[in-house]
Amino acid sequence: MLIGACCTDVKQVAAADLPTIRGLFRVLGFERTIGNRTETAVALIKGSIVAGIPLVRIHSQCVTSEIFGSVRCDCEDQLSMALDAIAAEGRGVLIYEMQEGRGIGLMAKLRAYALQDRGLDTVQANEHLGYAVDYRDYALPVAILQSLGLRRIRLITNNPRKVEAVELGGITVADRVPCEGVPDSHARAYLLTKKRKLGHLLTCV
Q1: Taking 50 as the threshold, does the pLDDT of residue 76 lie above it?
Q2: How far apart are CA 114 and CA 77, in angstroms?
Q3: What is the pLDDT of residue 86?
């Protein structure tokens, strides 16, 4: 996982108003080219973010939870809580990255699920398949925050590595805002693994 670098080749490729159930947001599309592939992310912006220290969430895609309603993880809960917090405050940024399964992709994630059904935890399953525990690269979201003119933020996360990535990119995390719900029984073991093996700051398990 690359946590310290910031890419300078990021470019904004789209912008539009996005009326939602939580009110009006502005959605911006960003991309960067790495070799022969293009990485994309969107920034969902609520209100004015130029004054004060805005709330920010860097969120990785989770099709199984956010589309299909899986309760094997807490991803959809975290997405909803972050958007609720930003909407309640009336301003903030949510960056949504296409890094399914901590960067291994949807098909590999489903194979890891099958191994978890047989008793492996999320870390062991990734390693059994020959993957690193976490492939996510936060250079693009850090570059997006910089392009938005943000130098101090309040980061909605339970993951200290995200805090480290943002600060290594030259943005001060003035506050880490926890993002915890009440875990479903199906997600409890997964969250315990994130806490014990990945260092996530969780009090709900």
Answers
A1: yes
A2: 23
A3: 98
The Cα 153–Cα 173 span in angstroms is: 5
Residue 86 domain-assigned (yes or no): yes
**Residue 147, CB half-sphere, CA atoms under 13 Å: how many?**
21
CATH label of the domain that carries residue 47: 3.40.50.10990
201 or 123, greater pLDDT = 123
Comparing CA positions, the residue from 148, 22, 151, 123 lying closest to residue 80 is 22
The pLDDT confidence band at residue 37, using thresholds 50, 70 and 90, is: confident
Which residues are the active-site residues? Answer: 134, 136
Specify the pTM. Answer: 0.90
Q: Does any domain span residue 89?
A: yes
**Containing structural domain, residue 154:** 11-99+136-183
